[in-house]
Structure formats: structure tokens, C-alpha cells
Write a structure and sequence with these properties.
Strand content of chain A: 15-25%
Shape of chain C: globular
Order of helices and strands of chain C: HHHHHHHHHHHHHH
Number of strands of chain A: 13
CATH topology of the largest domain in chain A: D-Maltodextrin-Binding Protein, domain 2
Largest sheet of chain A: 5 strands, mixed
CATH class of the largest domain in chain C: Mainly Alpha
Largest interface: B-C, 107 and 107 residues
Distance between the termini of chain A: 45 Å
Strand order of the largest sheet of chain A: 7-6-8-5-9
Number of domains of chain A: 2
Structural class of chain C: mainly alpha
Structural class of chain A: alpha/beta
CATH topology of the largest domain in chain C: MetI-like fold
Number of domains of chain C: 2
Helix content of chain C: over 70%
CATH superfamily of the largest domain in chain C: MetI-like
Oligomer: heterotrimer
Radius of gyration of chain A: 21 Å
Chains: A alpha/beta (about 350), B mainly alpha (about 280), C mainly alpha (about 280)
Strand content of chain C: under 5%
């Protein structure tokens, strides 16, 4: 949070200013500092803390006054809902393109948002990996190992967490790509996998806490970046990262929320901020935070940290996010069906 | 203001005191803004996507399971508190021992302690690597992140209601009735069962209702310790939040409305039961 | 109190002893353990780490925001409580019991629903969403939304403390004052207020404790912007999700400390003004 650089008084003024504005029944902010609100998903807290500091530094070289970059983090679906419900996000940096599509559908951003920035508006990508206890006591090597009987799995809820949707789709694609794999087998496979799930948190962060801090489960399905963070946080002696034979290109996407920036007069700032995410300095931060950078040069520098593995895409296997959502995650979709079967 | 006189029936009984109009007016305006208007939205919005949608949401397995868990775990928690709350109330009123006043003061802790604080603390205690969780884990019993964990959190939040309902009744209980029973040769246990129990039964039921109602709606302390798995350890208030996160406003409001309706019916029933028991206790 | 000395009420020592042990055990398990855990977890990495966690500007902002919300919501509900109690306790009018039920209603509503209803009304997709949007007014995800949700959740506290007491006190004193020519405000400040001041303090205390600790309702209406719309309980959840367990429990320990102060003040109030408080319905 950028309040750190501007000192406690600014943040207090922010609160009181917001209060005064709120009580006066007025959406405008009192203090003269420029503000930009980035509404993001769970595992990007540390990433944006660092990138924001760099951006403010750069911005101050050419601008007068204060720039306060505000952050809000939560499950990706929840965050998209909040923006649709009126949270005044200038930019959203969410876990799946679908969540931003939902914001576009509500008319808050352009439907073609994905083509407005390089690399499908994904400044960094990630993939889905496993985290096990040290020494991998359940001998988990690949997706079929975590669908076995007697393996307890931790993954968040695909209905509220973007990361969880990537987890689910990766598992589905794996089953589909097995010899003799078809939709019916994939469904069975995913059902037996979710039957092993012991705790279904609402966000990726909650799942990591459950797995690492509370010691529940044999394997955690997680973002690659979140898995590394977990190892840093809870000790590489306790946890181990396992790369499956195949995974998915997870594309967390970013977009400007046009309706809000127009109203708040932050249009140019939001554009500059999002472009900055592709800047080599920001890309380097992403790489060090274990997000796979889109900048080829930066990626090359960090090559050894990002093992190669076969990766499918949502567009390639599921015909795009809208389709994947309709079949799997929408109300009454496949995920709802297998959840109901589990309850019986 | 006005002179008291015999008048026909009217909306307001005349009074010598000032300020009725402004006080009632303000009260009604305030309640309309903070309670009535919001509840109207809760009652009307579930239907906006059509009755079919409402019906599908309500008969959905996930909704039914969440409601069953919320009401079931609340019921069990209230039962546990009924037993121990009665014992605690009895001990606090009838016995003198060091630390009694301290215990008495602490009964209200769950009122004063924020639910989120209780939630993270209970999760830390009952997780497999927590103080109590570690005792059960080797035996294959898991408490946190199961329906058992939900129940533990609800026991915590519901505890004060039963004790605080029974305590005053027990304090006011006529000594003579017990003395008479004792004089007539009734054993101590017989006295308790036949004299004391009927007298405090209505209060026990009242406390049970309050404890139950509070537990059904509880959110903060539960979500940290429940596993939040659909159909297994997902409580109804969490389902409301999830429906909201899925942009399903009608669904969220629908679950909320049904929760409110069931609570209302159950409380009516418990109140009626209290009335019946109360009359019998006096007879 | 006399009950403890009556011969007829003397239980066998083993029986009394067993019950006391059982009650103390239940207290330790259900109440003390979660409370102690909060402080132990907060101090797990030493006092310095604990102390440092409050240097974070976001932590300070969360504390200030929580106080700000309480400072708005509590006086609102206090004025409401006084007005409602005046109307209900001092006058007879048609529909009074319905009004009392309505005042009690927020107690039996899940906090999540209390937040949800304001999203249904004032969210971008709410009934008044388009109107508010046109006039560039934002309610949900601002401090206004937090205040609305908190006010609804804590609405009954002051009224519930005052109504039974003022009913028990009747109208004689005020009527006498009015007859002697005292104006309405004079009557209120010189006659009514001194009679109810302790109950009023008690209600305000409970209301404040609940307002500062509210989680479910504000979780639904907060945009979770650190340093701006994250209250203490929400900030606890944020820290908890950041694996920053020490800081989360440190913030929790502040709220727990406040809960302990609440209990202490409450006990002191009760001890000194037992008679006045005994007249009310105790929750």
C-alpha cells in the first residue's frame, strides 16, 4: 500500500476525507492527492505493493503532488461483483478474463478490453502446480495421484475464486488428454478429485492458510506464484512444490474500468499504470514474485525458475472463457452437479 | 397539556406527558429507514428473476443442505448450552466459591468479543495443530473445518443467552417452596426435579430460543472454522455471500428471506411452547 | 442471595463440588481458552513483533475507521433508543407491541442479511442504484455503507435496555413535573434522564462493543480497500489472509482488550446499581 510512503497522516486524512465525502452524500474525494484504486485478487498483494512503489517513484518525477495507489484484494469473483455493484475501481487486475468480461457486460468497460493491451491484457501469466508436505509422503506426481482414494486435497471454491477455476479446468483438461479420455471420463475424474477436497475456501489465500498454517490436507492445488510464496512464508523444509506432467496457461488479466475513470478523471493515469505493468522494471518484479513475465527478455533472465511443462489454454480446450463458464461454473453447471452428487 | 377525561376509544390514550408525537414520529421514521425499507427489499427482490428461479434456488441441494446445517448445528449447539448453561446458572446462583464473581462477569464475553476475533481464535485452537485439535487428530477426529467446528463456534456465541435467562429466575425462586418440599421429606434431588425444574423451565426455553436465533444467523466466528465445503460444511449466511459474489441478487435475497421465515416460524413455536410450559409451571 | 444460606437448599458437598468443577471446566473450555489464545498468538513472536504490527499506517487507519463508524452509529442509535423508549414506555397507543417487535427484529436477523439489504437498496444494481449513480452519490463501499450496516445491526441495543426500565418506572414523576409547569426538555433532563442514566450507559456500552466488532454486515458492504474501508475486524481477516498471523491476532487482541473493559465496566455498573438494572430484562 502506498500509504506507507506517504505516512500515517495521509491515510488518516483519507479516512476522514472519505467519511466527510460519504456523509455529505458525495462521491468526490476531498484531499488534493491523486488517487487510483486497483481492485485485485488474492495472491497479488506482495506483487502490487512492490510495483506500486516503483510506479509512484516514476510518476513523481514528472508530476506535482501526491499519488496514492489504493489496493483492494479478495476472491476474484467477489471483487468483480463489488466493482459491478459500484466499487469505484479505476483498474481491475483479476484472476481470470471471465471476471473482467462480467464487468464489461455490466457496461463499465469496453467489450474489447482484452485487445487494448499486449498479450491479451495479461502482463504476467502463471500456471497451476501442486504443493505437498515435505518429502511428498503421498507420492504425488501428477493429476491422477490427487484423485486417488485417501488423498486429501485443498483447493478454493471455483464459484468465488478465479484461481480455483484454473485449477478445475486444468484437471478437466488433463483427464480429457488421457488415452481414451472424453467428456464423460473427464467429468468422473473431476468428480472424484473434488470428492477428495476437504476444505473449500473462498479464495486462494484461504486455501494456502488452511494447508500450510492449519496443516490440513495432503496436497494443495495452487498458482505457481502462490506456491512459491507459501514456501517462502512457511519454510521450504515443510512444503514441496510438485510440477504435474501437464497444466494450464493461467492468464490473470488487467483492464481499465472506463466508466469509473471517466467519472473520476483518472483516465490517463489508469492507462499509464496499466502500461507500466509491461515495463521491464515491473516485469522484473513479477518474475521475482514468481509470476511468469510476458517480456521475453525478462523471462529469459529468470528461465531457470520457471520449469517447462506442457500447458493447455482455455481458448484451445474449452473454446474460451464464456463457454467454459457457461458449462462448468454457471448456476446448475457441471461443478454444481458434482457438488450435489457429493452431498448425497 | 391536556386534561385527563373520559373519552371514547382512540388511537392514543391521552396523557399528561409531552413529546409523544415527535418521539413516535422519529421512531417510526428511523425504523422505516433502517428496518422496514431494507426488509421490503429482502421480501420483494427474490421474485424479480421469476418464481421459477426462486423455487430452483430454494430447492437446490446446496441451499437445502446449507439451511439444514445452519439450523441443525444451531439446534445442537443450543441443546449443549441448555445443559451446561443451566448448570452454570445454578452454580453461579446457588454456590459460594472463590472466583464466582469473575465467572459471572465472563458469561457475557461472547457478547463483547467480536465474532471475527472469536473465529480466528477458535480456528487456531481446534485445527489439527492447535491446542485441542492436536488431542483429537491422532484418533482420526477432526474438529475444525468440519460441521463439528461449526457447532463449536455456535456453542461459543450462544452461551450467554441461556445463563442470563435462567439466572434471574433462579435468584427470585421462592425459598419456601423448596423448604416445604424438604420439610415434607422430599429428597434434595426430588425437590430439584419437582420444584425447581418446573419453575425455571420457561426461562430455559426462552434462553434456548435466543441462543438458537443468534446461532442461526452467525457468520463471523463460523467462517474461519468451518470448512466451507458446499453441501457439507457451508452455512446459510455464507451461501448468501457466495450467491452475492456470483451476481445472483435474487438468489442471495431468496436464501436470506427463507432463513428469516424459518427463524420466525420456529421462534413463534418456541414462544408458544414457553407460554404453555409457563402456565403449567404455575398451575 | 439469601438462597445460598438456606438449609433446605444445601446440596451434598460432593454434588456441589462436582457441579462447580463442571461449570469451571466449561468456562475454561468455551470462554477462557479462546480469549487467552488471542493474546498468546499475538505474542507468539515476542513483544517487539507485536508492538511493530501497530506501526503500519493501514492498521492505524483501520482503528480510526472503526472508531469513526462507532462514533456515528452509536449516537444515532442512542437518540433512537431514547425516542423509542419514551414513546413505548410512557404512552399507550395502538400497535405498540408490533412496534416493540420491530425494534427487536435486527437481533434475529443474520448480520450478513443486514449488509445484504443495503446492497439490494443502494448498490449499483439496487433499487436506488440508478438514481444515486445519476447524482454521483456512492453509498455501498464507502464509509456511509459501513455506517448504515452497523447502525442496523446495533439498532436495538439502547432501546432494549431502556424500555423495560422506563416501563417499570411509570409516568408519575414526569407527570408531576409537567403539572408543576416544567417544559418537556426540562422534564426529560431533570427527571427522566437521572432515573435511567445507568441503564443508558449500559446500553451505549453494549452498542459500542457490538458496533466496533461487527463483521458479517460490514464485510458485505465494504470494498476492502486497505486504509480506507477496512474496519478492524475486516483488517483482521485481511491480515489473516496474508499469512500475517501475528498482526491479525495483535489487532484481535485490541478488540479483545476492549471486550474485557466492556465486561469490567458492565460488572461495575451492575454492582453499584443492581436494583435499577434488576428491573430490566437481562439478556
Amino acid at each position: 500500500m502506498l500509504c506507507r510512503q506517504t505516512g500515517p497522516w495521509t491515510s488518516r486524512r483519507a479516512v476522514l476525507g472519505a467519511a466527510a465525502a460519504g456523509l455529505a452524500g458525495c462521491g468526490e474525494r476531498g484531499p488534493p492527492a491523486t488517487r487510483l484504486l486497483n481492485v485485485s485478487y488474492d495472491p497479488t498483494r506482495e506483487l502490487y505493493e512492490e510495483i506500486n512503489a516503483l510506479f509512484v517513484e516514476q510518476w513523481k518525477q514528472t508530476h506535482e503532488g501526491d499519488l496514492i495507489l489504493e489496493m483492494s484484494h479478495g476472491g476474484s469473483g467477489r471483487q468483480a461483483r463489488a466493482v459491478i455493484d459500484g466499487l469505484h475501481a479505476d483498474v481491475v487486475t483479476l484472476a481470470t478474463p471471465f471476471d473482467i468480461d462480467a464487468i464489461a457486460q455490466a457496461g463499465l468497460t469496453a467489450p474489447d478490453w482484452r485487445s487494448r493491451l499486449p498479450n491479451n491484457s495479461a502482463p504476467y501469466t502463471s500456471t497451476i502446480v501442486f504443493v505437498t508436505r515435505a518429502g511428498n509422503p503421498k507420492a504425488i506426481r501428477d493429476w491422477n495421484d490427487i484423485a486417488r482414494d485417501g488423498v486429501s486435497v485443498i483447493t478454493p471454491n471455483p464459484k468465488t475464486s478465479g484461481g480455483a477455476r484454473w485449477n478445475y479446468l486444468a484437471a478437466w483438461a488433463f483427464a480429457l488428454r488421457q488415452p481414451g479420455g472424453d467428456e464423460a471420463r473427464a467429468r468422473d475424474f473431476v468428480r472424484s478429485l473434488y470428492r477428495n477436497v476437504q476444505v473449500l475456501d473462498t479464495g486462494a489465500r484461504g486455501s494456502m492458510t488452511t494447508f500450510a498454517q492449519r496443516g490440513i490436507g495432503d496436497v494443495l492445488i495452487a498458482w505457481e506464484n502462490e506456491a512459491h510464496l507459501g514456501l517462502d512464508e512457511f519454510g521450504a523444509v515443510n512444503l514441496e512444490i510438485i510440477y504435474p506432467s501437464m497444466s494450464i496457461v493461467a492468464e490473470p488479466a488487467v483492464a481499465k474500468v472506463d466508466a469509473n475513470t471517466a467519472r473520476r478523471g483518472t483516465d490517463d493515469l489508469a492507462d499509464a499504470y496499466l502500461r507500466f505493468l509491461y515495463d521491464p522494471s515491473a516485469q522484473d518484479v513479477a518474475a521475482r514474485r514468481h509470476f511468469r513475465p510476458s517480456d521475453a527478455q525478462i523471462l529469459a533472465q529468470h528461465r531457470s525458475e520457471f520449469p517447462d511443462l506442457a500447458m493447455i489454454t482455455v481458448d484451445g480446450v474449452f473454446g474460451g472463457w464464456a463457454e467454459a463458464h457457461r458449462i462448468h461454473f454457471a448456476d446448475g453447471g457441471v461443478f454444481d452437479q458434482i457438488s450435489a452428487e457429493r452431498g448425497q | 397539556m391536556s386534561v385527563v377525561a373520559r373519552r371514547p376509544w382512540r388511537l392514543v390514550e391521552p396523557s399528561a406527558l409531552p413529546g409523544f408525537g415527535p418521539a413516535l414520529g422519529f421512531t417510526l421514521a428511523y425504523l422505516s429507514f433502517f428496518v422496514l425499507l431494507p426488509l421490503t427489499a429482502l421480501v420483494l427482490r427474490p421474485w424479480e428473476a421469476g418464481f421459477d428461479h426462486f423455487w430452483r434456488v430454494m430447492t437446490d441441494d446446496r441451499t437445502v443442505d446449507a439451511l439444514r446445517l445452519s439450523f441443525g448445528a444451531s439446534f445442537v449447539a443450543a441443546c449443549i448450552n441448555l445443559v451446561f448453561g443451566t448448570i452454570v446458572a445454578w452454580v453461579l446462583v446457588r454456590y459460594e466459591f472463590p472466583g464466582r464473581r469473575l465467572l459471572d462477569a465472563f458469561v457475557d464475553l461472547p457478547f463483547a468479543l467480536p465474532t471475527a476475533v472469536a473465529g480466528i481464535s477458535l480456528a487456531a485452537i481446534y485445527a489439527p495443530n492447535g491446542v485441542i485439535g492436536a488431542l483429537f487428530d491422532p484418533h482420526g477426529i477432526q474438529i475444525a473445518y468440519t460441521p463439528l467446528g461449526v457447532m463449536i463456534a455456535l456453542v461459543f456465541v450462544g452461551f450467554p443467552f441461556i445463563v442470563r435467562s435462567i439466572q434471574p429466575v433462579l435468584e427470585d425462586l421462592d425459598v419456601e417452596a423448596e423448604e416445604a418440599a424438604a420439610t415434607l421429606g422430599a429428597g434434595r434431588f426430588k425437590t430439584i426435579v419437582q420444584v425447581v425444574a418446573p419453575a425455571i423451565l420457561p426461562a430455559m426455553l426462552a434462553g434456548f430460543s435466543l441462543s438458537f436465533a443468534r446461532a442461526v444467523g452467525e457468520y463471523g466466528s463460523v467462517i474461519f472454522i468451518a470448512g466451507n465445503i458446499p453441501n457439507v460444511s457451508e452455512i446459510a449466511p455464507l451461501l448468501i455471500v457466495i450467491r452475492l459474489e456470483e451476481f445472483d441478487y435474487a438468489g442471495a435475497a431468496g436464501v436470506g428471506l427463507v432463513m428469516l421465515a424459518i427463524s420466525f416460524v420456529l421462534l413463534l413455536f418456541l414462544n408458544a411452547l414457553q407460554g404453555v410450559v409457563g402456565r403449567r409451571g404455575k398451575a | 442471595m439469601s438462597g445460598r444460606s438456606s438449609v433446605a437448599r444445601r446440596d451434598p458437598p460432593w454434588f456441589a463440588g462436582a457441579l462447580i468443577v463442571l461449570a469451571v471446566f466449561y468456562f475454561v473450555l468455551v470462554l477462557f481458552l479462546p480469549l487467552v489464545t488471542v493474546f498468546l498468538e499475538a505474542l507468539r513472536k515476542g513483544f517487539t513483533e507485536y508492538r511493530v504490527s501497530f506501526d503500519d499506517p493501514d492498521a492505524i487507519a483501520a482503528i480510526q475507521l472503526t472508531l469513526l463508524v462507532a462514533v456515528i452509529a452509536v449516537p444515532l442509535n442512542t437518540v433512537f433508543g431514547l425516542a423509542a423508549a419514551w414513546a413505548v414506555a410512557k404512552f399507550e397507543f395502538w400497535g405498540k407491541s408490533a412496534l416493540v417487535t420491530l425494534i427487536d427484529l435486527p437481533f434475529s436477523i443474520s448480520p450478513v442479511i443486514s449488509g445484504l439489504v443495503f446492497v439490494l437498496l443502494y448498490g449499483a444494481n439496487g433499487w436506488f442504484g440508478p438514481f444515486l449513480d445519476e447524482h454521483n452519490i456512492q453509498v455501498i463501499f464507502t464509509v456511509t455503507g459501513l455506517v448504515l450496516a452497523t447502525t442496523l445491526v446495533t439498532l436495538p441495543f439502547v432501546a432494549r435496555e431502556l424500555i423495560p426500565l422506563m416501563q417499570a418506572q411509570g409516568t408519575d414523576e414526569e407527570a408531576a413535573a409537567a403539572t408543576l409547569g416544567a417544559g418537556p426538555w426540562r422534564t426529560f433532563f431533570l427527571v427522566t434522564l437521572p432515573n435511567i442514566r445507568w441503564a443508558l450507559m449500559y446500553g451505549v456500552l453494549l452498542c459500542t462493543a457490538r458496533a466496533m466488532g461487527e463483521f458479517g454486515a460490514v464485510a458485505v458492504v465494504s470494498g476492502l480497500i486497505r486504509g480506507e474501508t477496512a474496519t478492524m475486524p475486516l483488517y483482521i481477516e485481511i491480515l489473516y489472509n496474508e499469512y500475517n498471523s501475528v498482526a491479525a491476532f495483535a489487532m484481535a487482541s485490541l478488540l479483545a482488550l476492549f471486550a474485557l473493559i466492556t465486561l469490567a465496566v458492565k460488572t461495575a455498573l451492575e454492582a453499584q446499581f443492581a436494583d435499577e438494572l434488576a428491573a430490566q430484562r437481562i439478556r
